[in-house]
Write a structure and sequence with these properties.
heterodimer, A: 337 residues, mainly alpha, two-stranded antiparallel sheet, globular, B: 275 residues, alpha/beta, six-stranded mixed sheet, five-stranded antiparallel sheet, 11 strands
């Protein structure tokens, strides 16, 4: 039954998301687009924090990097090509993750947290204090990227409904992608690393390589989110790669439930909707947000995802049809001497 | 010449899998392992015994790549592997078990062994197909689970098993990596009598086509299995050779076996029959 409950909840959620723009309210459609972008971002961080056990406080570096690449690549007078700019942005974020990851993954524990934070801050000051991309004011993207297929333009990113569906597509694709990876041999390796990295080494896994590849995948997905965020509002500034953004996306992962597929989605929706509604009540809204976070930490150790019905079947069960030799060990190999 | 000696003669003619030369490891001023030279051949069970703190576990850590030696060399089939990392050593066909159970507690028995078996894929950088669909890996996992006698617990998380059963998982995982050289660090410690008998039987079977370096405190098991016996004291080898000869060696009796021999006969007629 609980599996069925999960399926119904998933179906209802999807119908609501697909139908939402029918409301037609520009502000709310854009607001949900923003949240959906954050679900990709939080999902990518969850790959590190929840599944591999790597707590990064500098994940905004990849988010912001992709945004800056789009802004710097876009010409002033015409629109950038969507496919090229997207591939370039995500590629640069992945490359940056490869560079930073290859260094920070040589540390662990608290040192890893500090190292990720340090690299992200270095990038923040690079864009904040130099004139590469408008310094502290940031840089504008004058025309949104355009997808042209043989002279035909299937959608227009300046149209908020079109943009919403594009973001919805990417956020669903990201979840499917993460889900697939987690069930693959690679996904099992990172789960093993989270639980007992030393034993993984002893079993013959070069854990550093797997952590690095995971870091790059997470960086690339964060880059996808950063690209969409930059395309949505047409402006990129250094705050996008600051520790505040890194902290807030980490909060979404923890609030929603680390190491669960639904966690980052629930976390992004709840945190952003709470903030939005608290802001209408009081200008001290951060106090209220803080109180909610403390309450969740105290009473929902597994986050909001812990409230969902549990899955009935385990990924770890012996798959049907697998049969070892049903013989006793002593009889199997050779007779006694 | 009885059967044990005959078998030993056969072992002496087979390939040397593991050899160490003057292997040492110092922790500060302490020589935990001090100039140990030993070898282990295919089909040989080389038991290493000694009092607590003799350096037996450190020796295994040096051989498995968990620790780097301060001096000396390690050879696998004649190839110098000194100082290689543990994943590299594991890749060369060396499997080790831990004295203190070192497994993936939240995972099921099956997943623990499946993960161990998965390490034998050429690479696990595979992102699309479900891990459960790799039949050869799942089959290998289930085979070792049956070998150690945990088939009925396969779908249970390891943290819900008894201590003895967790020890069996430990051994199953080591076997799942399909090693040719087994480094077993007190495999029987904490196991019930019934499971012990089963594991001793399993090790005897495995000895046919494996080289086994066995650190064990259970003397009955040691004398039932070993072709070669090495006694370590204070990090160094005190005596090494054919088990009966080592056992009757006076220095060994004084240094280590003395109290044990006094308490009860180490080897009964029944044990002789088993050789």
């Amino acid at each position: 039954m609980s599996t069925r409950a999960r399926k119904i909840a998933l179906f209802v959620g999807l119908v609501l998301l697909f139908a939402f723009p029918l409301l037609g309210d520009r502000f709310y459609v854009q607001f949900i687009s923003k949240i959906l972008i954050m679900t990709i971002f939080a999902g990518s961080l969850n790959l590190l924090v929840g599944y591999t056990g790597l707590i990064s406080l500098g994940h905004a570096a990849f988010f912001g990097m992709a945004g800056y690449v789009l802004a710097l690549y876009s010409p002033h007078t015409e629109a950038a090509g969507l496919l090229t700019s997207l591939l370039l942005s995500v590629g640069c974020a992945a490359l940056l993750a490869l560079l930073i990851g290859s260094l920070v993954l040589r540390t662990s524990g608290i040192f890893f947290i500090m190292a990720t934070l340090a690299f992200a801050e270095m990038l923040f000051y690079l864009f904040h204090d130099t004139a590469i991309a408008g310094g502290s004011d940031g840089i504008y993207i004058y025309q949104r990227p355009v997808l042209m297929i043989a002279g035909w333009q299937p959608f227009d990113l300046a149209n908020f409904v079109h943009f919403y569906y594009l973001v919805l597509f990417f956020s669903l694709a990201a979840i499917v992608c993460i889900h697939t990876i987690l069930r693959s041999p690679f996904g099992r390796v990172i789960a093993g690393i989270r639980v007992n990295e030393q034993r993984m080494s002893a079993l013959g896994f070069h854990t550093y390589r797997y952590k690095l590849v995971c870091f790059v995948i997470a960086g690339a997905l964060a880059g996808l989110a950063g690209y969409l965020a930059a395309a949505q509002f047409g402006v990129v500034n250094p705050e996008m790669l600051g520790w505040h953004v890194s902290g807030s996306v980490l909060m979404m992962v923890i609030l929603g439930g680390m190491g669960t597929l639904a966690g980052p989605v629930l976390g992004a929706f709840s945190l952003m909707m709470l903030e939005e509604s608290f802001q209408t009540i009081t200008k001290h809204w951060q106090l209220l947000t803080g109180a909610v976070i403390v309450a969740v930490a105290l009473y929902l150790p597994r986050g909001f995802a812990g409230l969902l019905p549990k899955r009935a079947t385990s990924d770890q069960a012996v798959p049907p049809g697998v049969a070892g030799a049903r013989r006793s060990a002593a009889a199997a190999r050779r007779p006694d001497v | 010449m009885h059967a044990g000696q005959l078998q030993r003669l056969g072992v002496l003619m087979s390939e040397v899998v593991l050899q160490t030369r003057g292997l040492s490891r110092h922790f500060g001023g302490l020589a935990a392992v001090d100039g140990v030279s030993l070898s282990c051949r295919m089909s040989e069970v080389h038991a290493v015994i000694g009092p607590n703190g003799a350096g037996k576990s450190t020796l295994i850590n040096l051989l498995s790549g968990d620790l780097r030696p301060s001096a000396g060399r390690v050879f696998l089939r004649g190839e110098d592997v000194t100082g290689l990392s543990s994943p590299r050593i594991s890749g060369l066909g060396v499997g080790r078990s831990y004295q203190r159970t070192n497994v993936f507690l939240p995972f099921t028995v099956f997943e623990n062994c499946r993960l161990a078996a998965q390490s034998r894929l050429a690479t696990s950088m595979r992102f699309f197909r479900q891990a459960a669909r790799y039949r050869a890996v799942s089959d290998a996992a289930l085979r070792v689970i049956e070998q150690v006698g945990l088939a009925r617990q396969a779908d249970r998380p390891v943290e819900t098993l008894s201590h003895g059963e967790q020890r069996q998982v430990e051994i199953a995982m080591t076997l799942a990596t399909d090693p040719s050289l087994l480094l077993l660090d007190e495999p029987l410690a904490g196991m019930g009598a019934e499971e012990s008998v089963q594991i001793v039987e399993l090790l005897r079977t495995l000895a046919g086509d494996h080289a086994i370096l066995l650190v064990e405190h259970d003397m009955d098991a040691v004398f039932a299995l070993a072709n070669t016996l090495t006694v370590m004291v204070n990090g160094a080898v005190l005596e090494s050779g054919e088990p009966q000869a080592v056992r009757s060696n006076r220095r060994v009796q004084l240094a280590y076996l003395g109290e044990h021999v006094a308490a009860k006969p180490v080897l009964t007629d029944g044990d002789h029959a088993r050789f």
